[in-house]
């Protein structure tokens, strides 16, 4: 979350992950993923710097909590299927994985 200032001087806290665009024309306008627009006093470069600073602090906190780092391993397609899917077995081939995903989307 980053703290910004509306044109009227009121403080505003924005989830930086929801920002789709930052435009300067001439006021700085944030376009959020839901289409909402927010006009702020800070310049585009300052908004970007605040986002970078926030994410840096977030990564520093993660590294403090997990000194050995976080291991993200690519899982084989058959390990991603929950056993509760009807017709699934202990070993599911990738084509069956795609078929199961399609079935879930249709239901």
Describe this structure in words.
- This protein has 2 helices and 5 strands, in the order βββββαα.
- With 107 residues, the chain is α+β, with helices and mostly antiparallel strands.
- It folds into 2 domains: 2-65, no CATH class; 77-106, no CATH class.
How are the elements arranged and paired?
Layout: E1 2-5, E2 11-14, E3 19-24, E4 28-32, E5 37-40, H1 44-65, H2 94-106
Antiparallel strand pairs: 1-2, 3-4, 4-5
Spatial separation of the terminal alpha carbons: 36 Å
Order of helices and strands: EEEEEHH
Q: What do the pLDDT scores average to?
A: 79
Shape: flat
Q: Could you name the ranges where pLDDT drops below 50 across 5 or more consecutive residues?
A: 81-85, 88-93
Binned strand content: 15-25%
Helical stretch tally? 2
Rg of Cα set = 22 Å
Count of β-strands: 5
Give the strand order, joined by hyphens, for the main sheet: 3-4-5
Tally of structural domains: 2
> Which structural category fits the helices and strands?
alpha+beta
The biggest sheet, with number of strands, parallel, antiparallel or mixed sense and barrel status, is: 3 strands, antiparallel
- The helix content is 25-40%
